[in-house]
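Input sequence (406 aa), recorded before submission:
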Amino acid sequence: LADEMQGGFGDENKFPSAPQLSVLLTIYAEGQDERLKKFLNSTLTQMASLGLRDQLGGGFFRYVVDPNWHIPHFEKMLYDNALLAKLYFDASVVLKEPSYAVVAQDTLDFMLREMQTATGSFAASLSAIDVQGVEGGYYLWSDEELAKLLSGPERDVLRAYWHVDGVAPLDAGHHLIQLRGLDEVAKSLTLNRQQLVELIESARHKLLTVRNLRRVPKDEKQLAGWNGLALTAFAAGYKHTRNVKYQQAAQAIVDNLNRSWWNSKTRTLSRMVANKKSLSTGMLEDYAYVAQGLFEWWQVTGNAKDRIMLEQIVEQAWQRFYNQQGWQLAENMLLRYGDRTPLIKDGALPSPSAVLLAVSLRLPNSSYAQQVKKSLGMANHELEEQAFWHATQIRNLLLRQQLDGS
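Predicted structure, token format:
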């Protein structure tokens, strides 16, 4: 499925495929395969420099509608940005590429600036459609706007560095992408690198000043599972940078888990907070992603209270969503036929059952060793036949081999 010319998977719409790329990083770290390294670098570079990422304000869009990574669907999801921030931190280490850590930090900073709510937890998404009803309108620029806002040298930089040239590709205007590196652009404009950087930052400041006056609708509901993914991302950010703002962001999510989502008396996790009220019962993905986030944060803090909550959530997840027939996504499912499955696939989000298994494998003195062993042994023929869709589960098999020393 890999597009080894342009990066990513498939030859039409392209999604970030964070679960699969994360597992391929793990496989590369063990095998150091040069073809795989080239594919990973190509994919990560294309996603960061072209249309999937907001080149002005940071953060990733949901997917692109073309195989060249140029034109996004302009919705920004919390889960995408959390998964990709963690992915780029990991890639900066595994592939020894410091620029990926810059992308990761930029993504966390975007989340803090535009998705964090007054409670400290994070909103679900930013709409693709602006308040005027224009898809991408918040992010796009007409030729008239650019001529009015920018100086001649800044417009030259915009054309050369951000590929704003010719007829706008979308009705609402130009979308900024980076096709060339700084040194190449500086040479083409007969500027030194410092002059080019100053012009880029000057243009960026002017455009963001105007863009900040625009409005894009925000889905303010806060989902437990997606905030669990954000907790994992901020824990990674703090481990990599020791930046206190990432530490504070992670702790705010944990505090909100205690305050709004997790009921320690009934040992139940709510799925959603909206209008300051906890709504609906947590699903497997909520328990799994929150458990993962708590595990990563506990690895940082060593806090005994965090571990207690973590162990209780893991225990409840196994009790509520697993039996000898396999997994179910929610309790009391209405459709009784086929409501249990031995494997849950990866999608835009990693398989929640595979995430819970990974936490259970890594948690010291876990009491679920037998259940983990049985679950990992179920339907492995499907892993061989549909490896792409079960990447996270395959990584669990690798993890078990490492822990067993085999």
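Checked by second reader. The chain has 16 helices and eleven strands.
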